[in-house]
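Folds abound. A case:
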Amino acid sequence: LGRRYNSGVKQLVLDLIPTPVPTFANFVAGRNVEVLAALRAWLDAATLDRSRILYLWGVAGSGKTHLIQACVGRGCALLFTDTSNVPPDAAARYAIDHVQALTDDMHQTLFDLINRQQMSSGAVVVAGNAPPRDLALRRDLASRLGSGLVFQLHPLSDTEKADALRAHAGTRGFPLREEVIVYLLRHSRRDMASLVQMLDALDQYSLETGREITLPLLKEMSQPSLV
């Protein structure tokens, strides 16, 4: 276990840790428990009324894209991707992210899609960075988005992120020191998916080097090496 590791090995460890697939199970809800419950009920509902439209909004890092991708993992068709702006035929549920970035042509497509879904048994979940009334959208589209269920997503506090990291470390079978948490929150990307990915990489690096998870080990793994 006394092997030496250079920057190439450190990068290999980081590369071997896959980015977690966004699911409802690995979404850290914090103050968003009600939103998570509503989304699950929306996906499981056999029939839908006014909740055929579900709109999520919040600041960057609040979890909107995670939840949209989780909906896609549960069968929603993702609309307005880099490869296609045309809605797939006859999808029961659609998911749209970053609605504030859509073009005028996409506004029309989304408006028509919502109308079509309202006349059928389909539904749409949309995410944006502000409430529908505050978006630079066509008035009729903003009105449609606001006519269903609208939820604000709240970003996790540092305390909630720290609790989530401790819980994740516990599932992997190692204690997490406070100084490691503080360093991760100050020097890593602050979204939970990136923090968890970094923690998984640290655990793997600890196993590869046969060393305990400490702040010096984290700094060694995360900073460039001169070796």
Q: What stands out?
A: Residues 1-6 have pLDDT under 50 and may be disordered.
